[in-house]
């Protein structure tokens, strides 16, 4: 992926909303994050699953306007997929480094929960902790996450992408 020196990145929550899309697949939808101005998008592999030829993007509130997404590659071990919009001039989200993620800091999730009509919904919480699981660094947060948010952005208040929303864990009732 090529980042151009003149590229501008989302620098606030409201700008980052423009950098999150709805990814529509045969079996439903999820979310995705624009990471380059020439249209590369990262999402979860489980959003794409086996549908690598019929992927579409919804960029804003016009849910009837769908744009084709090209499948580039997938890494199921880390639940990530790379897609491409055939466009330029997009406002990407800048990726954070591990040292940019701090427990107790504010965090925002942007995605499309439940229905494509709810695209680019924003919820807020904090980073509850950083955890190692299966050799991977995970971010624990209390930000509201719903089905369809998968592949969406977890950002700081300055718009920096600190994670990709992967799943919701619910507490277990002890009998």
Task: Please give a structural write-up.
By secondary structure, the protein is mainly β. It contains two helices and eleven strands; from the N terminus they run H-E-E-E-H-E-E-E-E-E-E-E-E. It has helices at residues 13-17, 45-48; strands at 20-25, 28-34, 40-43, 56-58, 67-75, 80-85, 106-111, 121-133, 136-141, 153-155, 161-164. The protein has a six-stranded antiparallel barrel with strand order 1-2-3-6-5-4. Strands 9-8-7-10-11 form a five-stranded antiparallel β-sheet. Mean pLDDT is 88; it is low at 171-175.
Short description:
This protein has 2 helices and 11 strands, in the order αβββαββββββββ.
**Percent strand:** 35-45%
* Succession of helices and strands: HEEEHEEEEEEEE
The main pleated sheet reads as:
6 strands, antiparallel, barrel
Helical amount: under 10%
Low-confidence stretches: 171-175
Shape: globular
Number of helices: 2
Strand order of the largest sheet: 1-2-3-6-5-4
Q: What is the straight-line distance between the termini?
A: 50 Å
Secondary structural class: mainly beta
* Average pLDDT figure: 88
Radius of gyration: 15 Å
What is the number of strand segments? 11
Describe the structure using short key phrases.
175 residues, mainly beta, six-stranded antiparallel barrel, five-stranded antiparallel sheet, 2 helices, 11 strands, globular
